[in-house]
Specification:
The protein is mainly α. Among the domains are: about 45 residues; about 40 residues, no CATH class. The protein is about 45% helix and about 5% strand. The chain has a two-stranded antiparallel ribbon with strand order 1-2. Helix 4 packs across helix 5. The relative contact order is 0.06. About 5% of the residues have low confidence.
Length: about 130
């Protein structure tokens, strides 16, 4: 076999491995957004290309390619959590904070959990000590 056909380069008497093939060709970079849109994760795409997920993230970042998947059909508004602000006296906040600390959660998480349970189990009248209408 001639030197031109030989994939191994001899340099200073040592055999050197062939140069690494280029993983991130323009064609591959063009495909990445399509793979993301089809639902593939960065882990799956990197395995497909033959690199680590970290390398994929860096190269896509440099090329201006987002690896974030966008939801095609977001959850209906009735299912998505809504935000509500409630003003409470300090004495009540202190009680909620004490119970939350015992449970190892935040006061906000405890308050949201309490309100959710009361509403789901239709306990509003019972909690307010009123007769059901």
């Amino acid at each position: 076999m001639t030197d031109a056909c030989n994939l191994v380069v001899e340099w200073l008497g040592r055999r050197m491995p062939p140069p690494k093939r280029k993983l991130f060709t323009p064609a591959v970079l063009e495909q990445v957004p399509r793979w993301v849109a089809s639902g593939q994760t960065a882990q799956e795409i990197s395995a497909r290309i033959g690199c680590t997920p970290g390398t994929l993230r860096v190269r896509c970042s440099r090329a201006g390619i987002s690896l974030r998947r966008h939801r095609r059909d977001p959850a209906p508004k009735s299912i998505r959590p809504q935000q509500m602000s409630v003003r409470l006296p300090r004495s009540i906040m202190s009680i909620i904070q004490t119970h939350a600390e015992r449970k190892g959660i935040t006061a906000e998480m405890l308050a949201a959990s309490l309100l959710g349970k009361i509403a789901e189990d239709n306990l509003v009248d019972a909690v307010l000590d009123e007769e059901a209408a």
